[in-house]
Amino acid sequence: MIRTPLRPLARILKAREQGQNPDAIEAENIRLRHEEDRDRARNRAEGRLLVMGIAFFCAFTVIGVRMGTLSGSVPEEPTAQASGSPIIGQRSDIVDRNGRVLATNLDTHSLYAQIPDMIDPAKAATDLAAIFPELDAEELLKDFTGERRFLWIRREISPEQMQAVHDIGDPGLLFGPREMRLYPNGSVAAHILGGATYGREGVSSAEVVGVAGVESFYDDFLRDPANEGAPLELSIDLTVQAASERVLQGGMMLMSAKGASSVLMDVHTGEIISMVSLPDFDPNDRPRVLTAADGAGDQSDSPLFNRAVQGVYELGSVFKIFTVAQAMDLGLINANTMIDTSGPLEWGRFRIRDFHNYGPALSAEDVIVKSSNIGTARIAMMIGGERQRAFLGTLGLLEETTVEMVEAPTGDPLLPANWSEISTMTISYGHGLSSSPVHLATAYSSLLNGGYRVEPTIIRQDGPQYGDRVVSEQVSTTSRNMLRAVVDHGTASFGDVDGYEVGGKTGTADKPRPTGGYYEDRTIATFASVFPASDPQYVLIVTLDEPTIETLGEERRTAGWTAVPVAAEMIRRVAPLLGMRPDVESLTPTGVTLTSN
């Protein structure tokens, strides 16, 4: 900036010529300069005041608008925001085929202690033990007065328990928000769902991870935020599952069995509509694995053991239909071919006998109806071991099942080390090869649905899921007719359910001893059924472990007296739930003349 000099030379010279005082010019210029500085300072101050006024106006306007918004909103308690990002987002729900919730999430709180902040550890320990009976006051006090600085007390607490802890009033007892996995139906479908627990934990959140069943198999899917909360839809029907469990539980108690299982499968899709294993458990309070210290010599005694998937048993005569069906498909026999049943059938030091003496010969159909071991073994000898093994492989009986559960690989079938001729004969009637009820349900579905291989699945499917053909349609139809005859006038007569045309095959197998040989008074009783036999829709497998019932003055252990009545009652209960109407033949009036008035 260029400033005007206080004593400009031109004006000084002019003033001297006119006889004026040059100092007056300097004084005037000084006065004018002061006035300019004053005006400039005033304008600067007025601008600052204007800016401050506008700022205060905006601030009070925002505050007023916020106060108006709060006065018109619903009052809510403030919630504390956890520092940092949560460990994991919400886990997806699991639903049945009709959208009914099987597993979901529930907001709850955890309880932990910041021990350095506690005021009265002794009182806190005593009061906590009163609220949570499973806690020990002395152990808590030892932890509170030791060297620890942090202690988890309960991973999950109810609102009532939270209030009771809050009333203790100790600042060292703190709560953390978290989600817990909730199974609203309790023990229903427990082995299918499996259960969940906590992985990584923090005071503000926790990671929920699956530990068994579909919760573990689909853990990545259920935890994936990209699914945007889409539920996992299973193939099971909740009402059918609950009814099956109730019937099987009653049958197990009535037959004094130590365990039981059932599998209901859609023969065209391989969908498992219900799968039950007893004894079971509540996944909301999943029990721990049994150890030797608990006196558990066999993990199959644990309620966590899934008998339907992990239970690998010799299933007995239910395998006979596979032998006869293969022989028919190979053109070796037909339903009316007479089979030599004279016995006993000897092979080396082994002797194969029938439960009754059926005479010198039976038709192939009667071999199934009367359940002849000798007749089935002779048919197996016609087939040969190599072809038998290949056929059972096409039915999925020689490999682990593909059902979507982490337990599936543990149910790997037990095969003979050497598939000899005697193995071929014994396997033909269900001994010498062990498989699970899910294996059996898959094989029966593949054989009886028209002859197409299906794969077992716990996920809902859309329409039939046919694989390769395993037998011709004619052989499939003939096999269904044979199984219907077994129920109509054979070993499974107690399995007939009016209106549902049940077909099936019984199987009673002695349980093997751990040291070799077989028990004489312990059996696995199985009934493999299909309904309706003329137009198959579902296969039902019912297995009882060591059943026995006193009837007609005798102790009975065979499947015809134990597993068959239980399966019949189950079909009677669940068929209407599946939307199946009983096919009851209407009576045509005879000897009646219709007239009109």
TrEMBL record:
Main location group: membrane
Under Gene Ontology molecular function, one entry of this record is: glycosyltransferase activity
Q: Please name the PANTHER family in this protein's record.
A: PEPTIDOGLYCAN D,D-TRANSPEPTIDASE, PEPTIDOGLYCAN D,D-TRANSPEPTIDASE FTSI
Q: Name one GO cellular component term.
A: plasma membrane
Cite the entry's keywords alphabetically.
Carboxypeptidase, Glycosyltransferase, Hydrolase, Membrane, Protease, Transferase
This protein's species is: Octadecabacter temperatus
- Per UniProt, the enzyme's principal EC class comes to transferase
Superkingdom per UniProt: Bacteria
This chain belongs to the protein called Peptidoglycan synthase FtsI
Q: Where in the cell is it found?
A: Membrane
According to its UniProt entry, the protein's GO biological process terms are: cell wall organization
**EC number from the UniProt entry:** 2.4.1.129
